[in-house]
Specification:
Layout lengths: L2 H9 L5 H5 L4 E8 L4 E4 L2 E5 L2 E5 L6 E5 L5 E5 L2 E3 L3 H7 L4 H13 L4 E3 L4 E4 L8 E3 L5
Parallel strand pairs: 1-9, 6-10
Antiparallel strand pairs: 1-4, 2-3, 2-5, 5-6, 7-8
């Protein structure tokens, strides 16, 4: 076994840094004004506001808020780059096999991105619940 193989074997556990260091799920506080709205994440009820949503990395990230006498509010939460995704790959660029394994593992577990944990707060406009409005959360 060459010294390169030994070094690769020692660095292999560091591959897929995002999957090891920041695997998810991501937690997001969801609130509404007025409070008490039913919250759905990808069409699955997760509670009433205020609540904390646990979002798996392979989720769509679509929140729906429903409250009697108020319009339905839909927010599509986008993923952001997981800060741990590239460091492992960059550190292992000298070892092409480990580099490819690292990227492959992170990509296969959807850990290249993550959901922002910035709290999600929506205003519930008075109106027909059948009317759907979209809101873009403030950063």
């Amino acid at each position: 076994m060459t010294s390169r193989h030994v070094a690769l074997a020692l660095l292999f556990p560091l591959a897929s840094c995002a999957s090891i260091m920041s695997p998810g799920p991501d937690l997001v506080l969801a609130s509404s004004n007025p409070p008490g709205a039913t919250v759905y994440l990808d069409d699955v009820m997760i509670g009433t506001t205020p609540t904390t949503a646990s979002i798996e990395r392979d989720a769509e990230g679509e929140f729906r808020f429903e409250l009697p006498g108020h319009k339905t509010v839909v927010v599509d939460r986008d993923k952001v780059l997981n800060g741990w995704f590239l460091p492992g790959g960059v550190a292992l660029v000298l070892f092409p096999v480990a580099f490819l394994v690292s990227l492959g593992v992170d990509l296969s577990f959807s850990n290249q991105g993550k959901y922002s944990t910035t709290p999600l707060s929506v205003e519930m406009p008075i109106g027909d619940p059948m009317e759907i409005v979209g809101q873009v959360p403030k950063p």
